[in-house]
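Private note to self, pasted from the team thread so I don't lose it. Backbone tokens:
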């Protein structure tokens, strides 16, 4: 996009902000593009580190695009800003927790959103033009994007001072306060960036670093600690009013112009966060409580109006310094319940290949949850809310996650060979088919060779579970891939179990369904025997469902009609889980048993019985629990 230049150079992923006329202010789209880039580079072995910089001499990034927030807020639509903040805060957390070095070059103004972007990474470089600040209280907001995290960690009472006054830090101040790491003269930066790209190492940074300029904040530390020692805003104001120094008078004059509510919230947040349990996500979650409410219950819109819309510099705050009820602060900081910041991906480009009886409702559930889903199916089937592509290759082109739901392992291999060359580096191939372990592992290896992540995630729960979003996923693959897929599993199902390395999801499904096939046969045999012994099916169920014969086949999916909870048996055995599919899964279990030299006599017997039922009798197209009427109609030895 024109506001960013994202590329890889040598061993570095390189992101340059390219809006110098707007002081490189962050837009929503810029945040999403940066997030997508660092997500891809996280697992790209060719990228050893990331460089963050910006065009122009005036600013690395002077903040976020607050004018657009103002327009949406005035129009009565706070959700635009809430979405922006949720996704920006998620990016801030990812930057702070990134597993590879990130080097930010913070020239000129680095304020608000700029601190969130470049102020939490592993290597923060400042120079002679650097001016770093959290100025949000001047527009009726609070230091956000993790700003309260930095302020709470600052030495002494510097956090309170910086958060309430919006003071602009020089390079020396920023290093003293913990907002930067190294001072390097800016004329050395171009060469340093080249070295970082060529070597993929950060050693050159410490070698180039010089003693930072003197910090005025360090010289004022004792005064700041004394004047900002109060627990509440009223305490701080009283200390300043009774101060005798010019510094106290100048600081009081500054605070008298700013939003009292914003300053009081900032002070309370810093005090709540300060301590050994502090982490970036805790700070961001607390900040989002204010962000979520600020349009309707704070000074934010008035602050923007006065600063950048009408530019009259005379905001009319809701409260005065001497008339601020403490409950106003408490209400803004109350937990948000269901709206709590959860750092989940709110929208993702997803491709879904295979829109059959299972795939179509799964894809539709993802689309309903707000994701952009593009589908493809060779039969031309569609799904609600899903855009259709002409080919599988076109469907996957821009997808962060590609989901497949296919009939067997050979088709999975063929589809993977077709789509992998067209997938974006770092994307995830998430296969939900039930296939043989060897196919799952072969596809995972192809993904690894192509710089992709792979998950094999077969499901349990049938068509009803796919439609209702109550599937269980058994997942094999890396932890990083599972973390990306987890929010999608939460939409499509009720449980996802990470079973280990690639292929282990299929192994778990095969073992689970071998148990299911065996226990269903045993359950049907028991009902058939009870019939012939004159024991009613109701009595049989009442005893077994509450004693040692308990099983899922009996208690949740009883094969006897009119007994126990509703099941396919009560619908003339129309399939919830077809006998054909059970035969497929049992064959997979025996294929795996043979490859692993495992003795599975019950699984082998169940496989043969379902083969006979489906291929030689009337089991094809019926539910797998229809084994009961089949057994009930037979005599011993038939």
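Design output:
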């Amino acid at each position: 996009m024109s506001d960013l230049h994202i590329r890889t150079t040598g061993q570095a992923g390189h992101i340059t902000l390219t809006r110098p006329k707007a002081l490189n202010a962050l837009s929503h789209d810029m945040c999403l593009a940066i997030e997508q880039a660092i997500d891809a580079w996280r697992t790209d072995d060719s990228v050893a580190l990331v460089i963050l910089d910006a065009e122009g001499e005036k600013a690395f990034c002077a903040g976020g695009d607050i004018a657009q927030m103002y327009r949406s807020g005035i129009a009565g639509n706070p959700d635009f800003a809430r979405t922006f903040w949720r996704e920006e805060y998620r990016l801030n957390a990812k930057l702070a927790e990134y597993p590879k070095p990130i080097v930010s070059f913070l020239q000129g103004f680095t304020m608000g959103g700029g601190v969130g972007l470049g102020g939490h990474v592993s290597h923060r470089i400042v120079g002679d033009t650097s001016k770093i600040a959290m100025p949000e209280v001047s527009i009726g907001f609070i230091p956000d994007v993790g700003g309260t995290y930095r302020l709470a960690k600052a030495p002494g009472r510097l956090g309170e001072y910086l958060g309430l006054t919006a003071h602009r830090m020089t390079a020396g101040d920023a290093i003293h306060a913990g907002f930067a790491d190294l001072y390097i003269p800016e004329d050395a930066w171009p060469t340093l960036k080249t070295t970082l790209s060529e070597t993929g190492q950060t050693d050159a940074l410490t070698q180039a670093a010089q003693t930072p300029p003197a910090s005025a904040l360090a010289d004022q530390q004792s005064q700041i600690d004394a004047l900002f020692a109060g627990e509440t805003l009223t305490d701080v104001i009283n200390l300043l009013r009774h101060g005798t120094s010019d510094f106290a008078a100048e600081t009081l004059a500054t605070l008298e112009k700013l939003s009292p509510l914003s300053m009081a919230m900032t002070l309370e947040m810093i005090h709540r966060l300060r301590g050994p349990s502090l982490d970036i996500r805790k700070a961001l979650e607390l900040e989002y409580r204010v962000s979520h409410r600020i349009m309707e219950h704070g000074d934010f819109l008035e602050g923007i109006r006065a600063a950048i819309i009408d530019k009259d510099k005379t905001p009319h705050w809701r409260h005065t310094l001497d008339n601020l009820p403490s409950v106003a602060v408490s209400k803004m900081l109350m937990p948000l319940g269901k709206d709590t910041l959860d750092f989940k991906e709110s929208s993702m480009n997803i491709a879904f290949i295979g829109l059959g009886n299972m795939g179509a409702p799964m894809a539709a559930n993802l689309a309903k949850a707000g994701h952009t889903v593009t589908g493809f199916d060779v039969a031309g089937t569609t799904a609600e809310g899903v855009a259709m592509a002409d080919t599988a290759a076109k469907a996957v082109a821009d997808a962060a996650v590609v989901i497949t739901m296919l009939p067997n392992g050979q088709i999975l291999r063929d589809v993977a060979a077709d789509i992998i060359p067209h997938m974006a580096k770092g994307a995830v191939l998430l296969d939900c088919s039930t296939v043989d372990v060897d196919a799952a592992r072969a596809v995972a290896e192809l993904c690894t060779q192509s710089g992709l992540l792979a998950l094999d995630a077969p499901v349990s729960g049938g068509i009803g579970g796919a439609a209702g979003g109550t599937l269980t996923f058994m997942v094999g693959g890396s932890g990083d891939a599972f973390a990306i897929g987890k929010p999608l599993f939460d939409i499509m199902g009720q449980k996802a179990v990470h079973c280990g390395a690639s292929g282990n999801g299929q192994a778990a499904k095969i073992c689970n369904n071998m148990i299911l096939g065996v226990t269903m046969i045993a359950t049907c045999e028991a009902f058939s025997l009870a019939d012939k012994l004159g024991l009613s099916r109701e009595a049989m169920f009442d005893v077994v469902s509450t004693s040692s014969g308990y099983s899922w086949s009996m208690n949740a999916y009883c094969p006897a009609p009119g007994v126990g909870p509703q099941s396919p048996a009560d619908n003339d055995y129309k399939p919830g889980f077809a006998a054909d599919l059970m035969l497929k899964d049992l064959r997979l279990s025996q294929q795996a048993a043979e490859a692993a030299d495992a003795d599975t006599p019950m699984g082998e017997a169940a496989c043969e019985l379902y083969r006979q039922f489906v291929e030689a009798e009337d089991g094809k197209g019926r539910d797998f629990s229809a084994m009961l009427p089949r057994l009930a109609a037979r005599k011993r030895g038939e």
